[in-house]
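Supplementary material to the annual report.
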Amino acid sequence: MQQHKGFSMEQKKARWGWIFVAPTLAFFLVFSFYPIGNAIYMSFFKKNLLSLKPPEFVGWGNYKYLFSSDMFWQSVANTAIFTVGTFIPLVVLSLVLAAFIMSRTKLQKFLQMALYSPAALSSVVAALIWLLIFDPRGLANQALNFINGTSGVNYHWLSNANMLRLSTIILYFWKYIGYFTIVFIAGIGGIPDYLHEAALIDGANRWQDFWHITFPLLKPTTLLVSVMVMIQCLKTFSTQYLFTTSGAPTRPIDVITLSIYNTAIKDHNIGRASAMSVLLFLVMLVLTWLQFRISRTEEVTYM
Amino acid sequence: MNYAKGKAPIGERLADIFIWLFLILACVFVVTPLLFMVTASFMPAIDIMKLPYPWFSDHIHWQNYWNGLKGPDGSFIFVRNILNSLVVALSVTATTVLLSSMSGYGLAKFQFKGRNLVFMLIMATMMIPFETIMIPLYMVVTKMGLHDSYAGLILPFLTNAFGVFLMRQFLITFPDEVLDAARIDGASEPRIFANIVLPNSGPAIATLAILTFRSQWDNLLWPLLVVQSDEMKTIPLYITKFMAETHSDEGIMMAVATMASLPMFILFFTMSNYFISTEGLHSTVKG
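Predicted assembly:
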């Protein structure tokens, strides 16, 4: 190709590059960057959702209010309990399940699909099913009574504060266990065969192979899954919302997103809701940054 | 991995039994609630609340499905709400696929000033969770007079950073010779995109389409903010309202739940390869 012709083609191409990207960029400016800027801005104002009065500047007022508010700390604590309570069993058991499934020669695909199936449900449907299971006459009480050898004991899944928290954790665990098992299976599948073969030639048994080869090499995947689960858990909304709207007490499961929603929509307090959003955003920012860093380093692990 | 078969020591065989037991138990835990949903959807409410749960009823109670469609007031609003969910999920899927592949193509195959900055800006939006911007978005959409409308439901989700990333990664490996040959033949850039790039991006587009459709089908928070009228409700909203209103008939509830899950289950069982292989891919960039 001649030099000058190539040059003009480059210029033309540059223009087309912009044309292809422009609509998406415009979209993100209006629907991502403007709103987050606006949330930060509004967090310094007092504004009622319904009133036509212009927002009134209050400085750090909303943040000061939140930091001294029991309700806010309660919802921080609820979110933390939910996140920790979900994330540890979810990460540990999805790793174990992935290792177990990969050690099978039969039914691998079937087991993956069976475990994954709840993830195909919408979270609203999941909440609906489990509300009936946690009903005093539901399967949860029947199962626990069967295990404990008792009969007719009601474990108050939806009314006792701690049982209610446990219920939301069980639901979430149930819905996502298959999803993260599959993430781990992808990680295990990414470990080159020759490493296992070398271990087996050296006389390692399956357990040693897993403990000394698979597990250490899965560390980046484990870290990544942990951060992903944490991000997911911090954003949990549907389960808690649906449980509270169908009569469960709000206080034990008033997580941060539910609190933002209620502050804005029920209390009409836009400023305070924005301040909560900004705080949530900061936590997520750190976690997402961590996730990016881990997923970038992960690619070179097996070199 | 091949382990010697037949003459495994006792320890290995015990481990085998333990692993199978564990896997079976996990499957039972995961599948039981689904089985409960489907079996209960065919039972009259009195049977569902029997102790212990009967699992199978003598006769199939199809009325639950009819009554579920009809709704407590006989208005068949659920049918309208299913259509709303389809309209919203399909529109969002279409715009996401189109915009993501356009910008992914632009970022992968064109040199222009500011390209890296644009890419970084788009990736940065992954750090802004929807939950933190829903209030300003709600005020924007209300100001535009779009609350309680399809446009209002669709607009904040026209595309997403994950889609752009996915399409860009996929198109980076697209052969340049094919594109250049088309240019030399005099094809315009939009035609190259529409007739060469899009038709050859099948797997990436299918992945993106499934993930987008699923997240919209599941979306509760945004419709909860923007929808007021029963006519504009999507399935998750219908179920929410239904739950609050009729605590009475569990059979109908489960029939509604089953109907709401049907599209996702059909997608899942026909395209399970996309689901299962994409989760790994998906997980590396998005939470």
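The CA atoms of residues 29 and 35 of chain A lie 9 Å apart.
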